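2024-03-11 09:14:02 DEBUG pipeline.ingest accepted 1 chain
2024-03-11 09:14:02 DEBUG pipeline.ingest length=123
2024-03-11 09:14:03 DEBUG pipeline.predict start
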Amino acid sequence: MPKRFPLLALFLSWLLVVDASAGNIEVARVPMPQLAPLQWELLRQQQGGHYQPLRIDVNLTIRYGKIYGVRVRRGTGHDDIDRTIVKWIEANWTTYPWFAGGDGFVISMNVDPAIRRVVFRRS
């Protein structure tokens, strides 16, 4: 039994290291999508003074820093705003080149007419 204790301790230490969470790793810093002043104005008029953030979820694929295959998963209900955001992401977003990425990433954002900004949605 005494000979097995160091092996058990080593195994438990290894298990704790493997199981520990890695935390958040930054893979990119990206500019948020911009809408034209006319789009904001039309959105504000349609909401009639009761400004509610609109949610948009987009799917995208990342391969070593390049973002492509951006498509709307859940739209705002305004096709022109959805298209503008998709085109903005395709044209302006990249990740760090070391990030291999993959398929099927989902990014959730709010289009907030009250502050005229597109922001990442908090869980």
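2024-03-11 09:14:41 DEBUG pipeline.report The two ends are 49 Å apart (CA to CA).
2024-03-11 09:14:41 DEBUG pipeline.predict end
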